[in-house]
Design goal:
five-stranded parallel β-sheet; two-stranded antiparallel ribbon; 17% strand; 11 helices; globular; alpha/beta
Length: 225
């Protein structure tokens, strides 16, 4: 298979063949799922009538977003946080609509690729996500593409931060996946669009590929398409 080596976190300097890789761990957003956080920032700005820069500042500085991804807030608590943070009195479905606006879709070619990769590798998902997003991914995005309602079917095992009570880039989240599946780090390739997550996986001995654009996954595994 193909594995990318980097001069720094953004620059691919050459391509090598690496026959030692037995296991693949995929991030979801920005790797399999097309993602634009800016769409959610715009949606919350329109909903709250707060300028987008302020919406973005609140988004980036509030610990509640990370807590929700770690399953330490339930859906109702998260929605109430949004109401307070952006000073809005709106129904749950309006908050969910804005929150899900960042989820743009999953190309069918990537779903088909994951099925083919399962024939040659142990394939895992490791995603920082949350209940509202996962419900939308399964019941709206995936169902609309394939008629299915369970993204887990495209992996040998799927790991979600809100169920693990951990989130990337915490090293413990990678160690849990390795230990539960008896994976050898040097035989495992982790693909993620976030440089901090890549660095954390590298520190526990996992080989890494920084996905700097969503189509890069298709280039890496071109021979499986």
């Amino acid at each position: 298979m193909q594995c990318y080596i980097f001069a720094d976190e953004n620059t691919i300097i050459f391509l090598v063949q690496d026959a030692s890789i037995k296991n693949l761990i995929f991030d979801l957003g920005g790797v399999i799922l097309d993602l634009s956080v800016d769409h959610t920032l715009s949606a919350f700005s329109q909903l709250s009538k707060i300028d987008k820069d302020t919406v973005k500042r609140i988004f980036g500085s509030s610990p509640e977003f990370d807590l929700y991804e770690k399953g330490l807030l339930d859906d109702g608590e998260f929605r109430n946080f949004i109401r307070t943070a952006y000073n809005v009195i709106v129904a749950d479905h309006e908050i969910d609509r804005c929150w899900n606006a960042m989820l743009l879709g999953i190309p069918l070619v990537k779903l088909n690729l994951l099925k083919r990769l399962q024939q040659s590798y142990s394939v895992f998902l490791l995603s920082n996500t949350n209940n509202i997003h996962l419900d939308y991914i399964n019941n709206t995005i995936l169902h609309g593409i394939t008629g299915e309602r369970l993204l887990d079917n495209y992996f040998h095992k799927a790991y979600y931060s809100q169920r693990m009570k951990k989130r990337k880039p915490e090293p413990e989240i990678f160690i849990q996946v390795l230990e539960e599946n008896m994976l050898v780090p040097s035989q495992t390739l982790f693909l993620d669009d976030n440089a901090l997550n890549i660095q954390s996986a590298d520190k526990v001995g996992i080989k890494t590929a920084h996905i700097t654009n969503p189509d890069l996954v298709l280039e890496i595994f071109e021979s499986f398409i």
